[in-house]
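Give me structure tokens for this 190-residue protein.
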Amino acid sequence: MVNSSSKQILSDLEKTQKEFWNISRVTGEFLNLLVRQIRAKNVLEVGTSNGYSGIWLGLALKQTGGKLTTIEYWDKRLSVAKENFKKCALEDVIETVQGSALEVLEALSEDYTADLAFVDANKTEYVKYFELIDKHLKPGGIIVCDNVLSHEEKCRPFIDAINAHPDYHNVILPLPAGLSLGIKQIPPAS
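Here you go.
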């Protein structure tokens, strides 16, 4: 469910998709649906850019009563994102963190957990993000990574790692840039 002001902001941001390396609209709609379907309460995003994907995630989290923590390295992009979140009345569900994603992920408190993580940042670091996010992702949680087809060579170490990991079932969806969807298995009941 997208209100009219958010709809306009999203439409405006789609005009700058290439400049800000944003996900496609269909990918945004998919993420929104996924968050609502799994009733996510805690979502982690690596790569905020101008806030386009964060708006899709935030709108879904408004419905589930959840929160988004989004990490962006570039302060200028993050300030644009914050303004977009404010225009969409999402600042109450979105916490922004400025800094190196690897450093921020390494500094997450031990008890931090996420239902879903969305990664759309430095493709060569995807495998490192995965290793750091894994310990915070709840069993049954999902890690979603964009650009795995458009940047296949750079994402290959991550794809190989998640496909080889015994706790994950991963599939690549042929959405515009290629979306990896890895579900962390729930341990069998003892």
